[in-house]
């Protein structure tokens, strides 16, 4: 009987849903601007990808290579990146559109605290960011997810037990 291997897209969907629920919890508790709590989402993502890589190697009875496990982990990462990008569009446009204003206000406070820009320069900068907020958010989501996923996939592939069968040794 052939073993059932959970496909990477399914694992990516599960991980994406966990990340989305965590983000919604942050939003509804008023903690969206808390950077420390935001980093927990990245830790959850990295930990889950590492665990999924190890589970994949176990499902394959260790008959995998570093590249096989890394590839599996990065396929999960690609699924998560795609799903979270679509979610980012929906969230910014429909679920919590006020996040744009909240983010720009935080940026204004930061720029004013530095004191290196005039009020006119700050306003121009923020108008530019407002115009391109959604593309910046999507790019940030894709890039951040890809970096965290690649690192987690490398770690997962490194720690997963591997004992690949070499067909040339069996002759």
What letter string, H or E per element, gives the SSE order? HHHHHH
Proportion of residues in helical segments: over 70%
Radius of gyration: 21 Å
Work out the strand percent. Answer: under 5%
Which spans have pLDDT < 50 for at least 5 consecutive residues? none
Q: What would you call the structural class? A: mainly alpha
Number of strands: 0
Largest sheet: none
Tally of individual domains: 1
Name the shape in a single word: elongated
Residue-averaged pLDDT, rounded?
A: 89
Count helical runs.
6
Compute the separation of the termini in Å: 25 Å
Would you write up a description of this structure?
- The protein is mainly α and 171 residues long.
- It has one domain (8-159).
- Helices cover 77% and strands 0% of the residues.
- It has helices at 8-28, 35-59, 66-95, 99-114, 119-131, 133-159.
- Helix 2 (35-59) packs across helix 6 (133-159) and helix 4 packs antiparallel against helix 5 (119-131).
- The model has no long low-confidence stretch (mean pLDDT 89).
Structural key phrases:
mainly alpha, 6 helices, 171 residues, single chain, elongated
Produce the secondary structure layout:
Blueprint: H1 8-28, H2 35-59, H3 66-95, H4 99-114, H5 119-131, H6 133-159
Helix pairs in contact: 1-2, 1-3, 2-3, 2-6, 3-6, 4-5
Overview in brief:
This protein is an all-alpha fold. Helix content is 77%, strand content 0%.
